[in-house]
Amino acid sequence: MARAFAPGKCILFGEHAVVYGHPAVAVAIDGGVEVSIEESDRWTLEGLPFDSSRHPHISHILHEVFQYDGPSLRMQVKSSLFSSAGLGSSAALSNAMGAALHSHLKPGQPLDPVALARMGHSAEARAQQGRASPIDTATSALGGCVVVSGEWVEGTRHVFDASLSTPEGEREWAVNAVDLPDNLEEAWLVIGYTGDISPTGRMVAGVASLLEEKPELEGEMDAIARITRAGLTALSAGNLEAVGMAMDACHERLQRLQVSSPALEALVEAARPHALGAKLTGAGGGGCMVALAREPRRVAESIEIAGGRPLISRVGAPGVHLLEN
After folding, report:
1. pLDDT greater than 80 at residue 304
2. 21's torsion region: left (phi>0), alpha (psi -120 to 50) or beta?
3. What are the phi and psi torsion angles at 288 (to 5°)?
4. Which residues of 75-110 are buried (b: 16+ CB within 10 A; e: fewer)?
5. Could you tell me the pTM of the whole model?
6. By CB atoms within 10 Å of each CB, which of 14, 138, 173, 221 scores lowest?
7. For 201-258, what is each residue's pLDDT tens digit?
8. How far, in Å, CA of 300 to CA of 309, rounded?
9. Catalytic site residues?
10. How many CA atoms lie within 13 A of 88 on its CB side?
11. Distances from the Cα of 67 to the Cαs of 57, 94, 130, 166, 276, in angstroms?
12. Distance of CA 192 to the CA centre of its chain
């Protein structure tokens, strides 16, 4: 049996602005997806017959990336992430599946995180009709802190470039890494899930329509970009108070873009008295918020009382890796 784990991700700064070429900062979280595969007498996923049309990520990796033509496989998937909540669950699935299949076909050979990130990105693009940012798959593969932008960002290490032919034309990104300081061990991320699902594509389209209707709001994208760079500088320096301030400021700008929701606002407000900063994370309209805290249990309890489901994580977990049997 081959087993692999890939973490989910949480965006700290840069939501929506990243669509317009500005940087976004994401960190890997402790929750993620575990995949195990072994040869079998029939194709199964979670004990049921495997239907490739219903699982485009897995089908793409099996047949188009690895061109697998071996015996049938028994595939098991375990996830500790909230599904369709902006935490990169599908990217984690793609990376964990790619790592497990690599281990099954090439036992003993080390994983290549960059190759897995590219593989996962291609699987995401296939599943999302040609539209996918590399931020989820890169953060899940590399772990730690990742910055994705249209160009290299000062204070980061360039890791690789990604490109994709989309229905709107060719897109290119620089994927960069940030070395996090040791004192971040003093702080934790507390993610709160509203229970509401909000498709990313719909939220991105909604922002585009809003900007057409109110062009004066385009300045909010530049403001988010400035906050993102300031937040990244604070994060790199381990200035936790400044990171929290940047998170609060980013949330205010996202409110102006009308991507928050009453449920998100309730969780953000519940978290703030006990946190360094709090904001929605991801596309908004539902999904999750995130708080930075030194006392994560108090924040988690506040989120739960306000009706959310909390998840506590380190700031920047390890990336995709194999598991012992």
Report:
1. yes
2. left
3. -130, 160
4. bbbebbbbeebbbbbbbbbbbbbbbbbbbbeeeeee
5. 0.91
6. 221
7. 788 888 889 988 999 888 999 999 999 999 999 999 999 999 999 999 999 999 999 9
8. 8
9. 136
10. 34
11. 14, 15, 21, 24, 48
12. 15
Which is it for strands 157-166 and 48-49: parallel, antiparallel or unpaired? unpaired
Check: CB of residue 318 under 8 Å from CB of residue 7. Answer: yes
Give the percent of the chain with pLDDT over 90.
69
Residues 100-119 have pLDDT tens digits of 999 999 999 999 999 999 88
How long is the chain? 325
* Angle in degrees, 0-180, between the axes of helices 296-305 and 262-271, rounded to the nearest 10: 140
Q: Which of the 8 DSSP states describes residue 62? A: I
- Answer whether residue 155 shows pLDDT above 70: yes
Query: What CA–CA distance (Å, rounded) separates 227 from 230?
Result: 5
Strand-pairing partners, residue 149, are 174
Residue matched to tokens 């017959």:
49
Residue 181 pLDDT exceeds 60:
yes
